[in-house]
Amino acid sequence: MPDLRSVGWFCILHSLFLTSAGWKKYFNNQLNEQELHYLVYQSSVADLSKISTSKSLKGINDTLKKQIYLTDKGIEAINYLLFAKKCEQFAVFAEDEEGAAWSYMGVRRKMTKPEFMSTAKDGNILYAATKNTDIKLRIAYQLVRLSHYGGFNDDAIRYFNTYVEPLKQKTLLYYYALEQKGGALFNQKKFAEAGCAFAEVFHNTTDRKVPCYASFRISNQMSFDKAILLCKTPNEKAALYVLRGFNKFSNGLSEMKNIYSVAPNSAYLELMACRALLQMEHTAFQIPNQYNDKSTFPLMNASGKVYLQKAILFTETLLKENKVKRTDFWQVYLAHLYLLNGNYAKSQATAQKVTSTDNLILAQKDRTEFCAYIGSLKTIDATAEAKIYQHFLKNKDDKQKGFVYEILGHNYILQKNLAKAFLCHNNFSGLYGTLNIAIINDLIDFVGSKNKSTFEEKLIADKITSKEPLAELHDLKGTHYFKNDDLENALIWYKKVPKNLSFLKLHDYDYDKNIYVEKDGTFNGYSNIYAGIFSSKVQTYFDNAEENAFNDNSYKSFDFIPARMNKQELVEALIELKKTAVGKDEQAAKANFLLGNFYYNTSHWGYYRNFFYYEPGNYYLSYIYGYNTTANTIKKTYNYNEGTGLITSNNPQKAYDYFIKAESISSNNELKAKSVFQASKCELDLFFANNNDNYFGYDGNYKLLYSTSTRPMFKRLKDNYSQTAYYKEIQSNCNYFKYYLQFRL
Fold this sequence. Notes:
There is one protein chain. The protein is 58% helix and 2% strand. The chain is an all-alpha fold and 745 residues long. Strands 1-2 form a two-stranded antiparallel sheet. A two-stranded antiparallel sheet has the order 3-4. The protein has a two-stranded antiparallel sheet with strand order 5-6. The relative contact order is 0.04.
């Protein structure tokens, strides 16, 4: 709907002609802002009619009265404003019009033909009676716009040709009227003529460039060639190429060549060059899917390389032909193309030829030259780091910092400097899913070093926001061992961590205040771990508060388990439980039961499934990809590398083994029943894991979820523990068990 797009956002101020400055000049600078504002913007049709007939100005001073009633210009201005206000009703967006609620652009009040004829008649009479050329142009504009908005396209074109054009005033209002004519031509499917009109308006205005671009619709070469022939000046032809060139699917380089052929020193050529460069950078600055020693940055696909080579050849030719005046712009441009092509030496040499005094060109010269230097580095040594630091210090905006860090990250990996490579692209959270021990070890050495350079200090300042970075790294290393069930080594590193370290915050959303509010009393990354991590319940809901998630308090039988603890204390408790669990008495059975609960609760299906992955809550786990029992490689990017660590999900099997042992050595049927039921949960989870995440069995066979083949522990519960109180609790609260009892499959 180009008629809307071309003028759709044309505010009412424009309908009354532009600015108070224009009106102030019209009245010989005799009126102040208050007087003008009332007259032009506040007054209604009724107000203006009253002014016109009774000479009443609502108490506004005599100066305004004199300017209106003692001059022909004043009378003509009032008559024009009265006419403009009448036209205004057909220009505003109407909320009550059909389809208005569904249109992002709004819908104008529909105009009937009698309304148009009556309003146009008033305009024709006024135009003929008006002597002042400025006012005549404004009236003509209103008629063109009125006709266009009303869908009377022939009239819009006629009014422009017979009322606007003969005045020979190429003012801003002329181009506003021409834009309206362009919309009318478009509606008549005269696309070449419309395109030419939009190109002329685009070239000669500032605020109408975007609407003209939005209205430009030429879809075939024949119409475009015709539009080129209709354009009157080389710059208008260049504008036409720009309008097509900014289309999403255009070839920017081709349009550059077209503009160069008609207007080599047009600003549009440089504009189109920047557009084409953005297209090339979009291709060049994509991070490869897989890192290898040959993957460098920038990295272009085959078609991108061909396009870049053509752009380089064109720019080299342009400079040789010496038709352009701003050679420094094109030298910097060529230097940047060489940079994208990986010709770092040529990029630096070309940039050094620039002698401009233009600050923008000099700034780009500096960026391009520096990036070429970075790209040329084979190794990153102390000298290079010092130069990089000085550049960052000099350029506070650091617009190319991402590029620099990408190159550095690549080289640091090749130099086996994993800490710096990692920090070029990540903070500590990049390790949460993988706990890559090689990177953690390098980071501990790097962060803990006493002899860091200024560049290294800046890298740490840019990438590490933690107040206690070494403490968090020690926790990460401890958790690496913990996740792998190496409790002794985990304890070594946890002892280096402050007891109340807190760096992971859980938030709730306050809908009344529309803000996130930090939750107190929850696991915070290291401390405040609830002893319920050793507990169980028939039904455990992830959205339950910790204290409500479990009803088994068997952990209270062991005085070395605190109600709240940190990771060090948790590991110490686990070590003691494992010592106790090797026995054959009832206490050993309880220890095995608690150990089973811990491993189940920290598995992918447990209430504390977020525990080893540094997620602030258990509702969603971004690091867990699938449920297979085998090690899964997760996609956690640092530099180009994917797969820096492993996620394993073998905890259900560990939990199952502990539950079975608890049942075997306990003499308490209630504990036996609890152990068997918890083992049945593990069975189901292992079934999911071993069947490629198929939650509902094969072919949607839901019965597999509660069949004896899947849940043999259900049969053991029924056969051995049906007289226990816990059995009755299971019957009441576990639907799977209910179905098992009902169908006995």
